[in-house]
Specification:
213 residues; alpha+beta; 6-stranded mixed sheet; 13 strands
Length: 213
């Protein structure tokens, strides 16, 4: 997308979709391209635009999925397609509550806030988890990706664990702890709309938030 941002407003131009103006953490104005389906507009309003809104409100916003585990929550982050939603859906199938999908807003007390009560899941992941997609809405027309409704979370929870999903040669599952200052870079790199922080003039605040978490 083409973008321009200031401390109080961000303008996005998504080719073949429309233009979006996000202002003051409160308002999203939409100018859709002719013929654009409402579901397609909704994807960007509830995704990129909402990420900007939350940044404008002063939250640290991670690109990941948050799942309640006991009295706290874990967050899986990683590049698009790394399996964040699949991991969250697997936890959900085992009885855990989904706190947030795709966008995880973290407050100044390092608590993850409840997000939209759904998981966006590709058909192949749904097949592996035995989730019937026949009655579900696609995230946009023709896409083999579906909105899976979940029970809404009610309360912010301490963000106690962050997992960075990656791949390696082999079929085993590997957990590699990171410590000290090595923990900063993954938080920064997996921040939602990280490229807009400079224009918003909140890079210093962002560094402090990552450091606190």
């Amino acid at each position: 997308p083409y973008r321009s941002t200031t401390p109080t407003a961000t303008w996005l131009n998504i080719p073949r979709v429309g233009k979006f103006l996000i202002t003051g953490g409160r308002t999203i104005d939409v100018d859709p391209e002719p013929g654009t389906h409402a579901d397609t507009i909704r994807v960007f309003v509830l995704g990129m635009c909402m990420g900007v809104v939350l940044c404008q409100r002063g939250y640290l916003v991670l690109h990941g999925n948050a799942v309640q585990v006991g009295d706290a929550c874990m967050c899986a982050v990683g590049a698009s397609g790394a399996g964040k939603s699949t991991v969250a859906a697997a936890f959900w199938r085992r009885g855990h509550t989904i706190l947030a999908d795709d966008i995880v807003a973290v407050d100044h007390q390092s608590r993850a806030l409840p997000g939209l009560p759904r998981i966006k899941l590709w058909q192949d992941s749904a097949n592996r988890l035995a989730i019937d997609t026949a009655p579900l809405d696609r995230i946009w027309p023709g896409e083999e990706k579906f909105n899976v409704p979940v029970a809404p979370a009610r309360t912010p929870l301490p963000l106690r664990w962050v997992y960075i999903l990656d791949v390696h040669d082999g079929t085993d599952l590997r957990l590699q702890p990171i410590t000290g200052l090595e923990r900063f870079a993954p938080l920064h790199e997996n921040t939602y709309v990280v490229r807009l922080l400079e224009g918003m003039q909140i890079r210093e605040e962002h560094v402090n938030e990552c450091g606190q978490l």
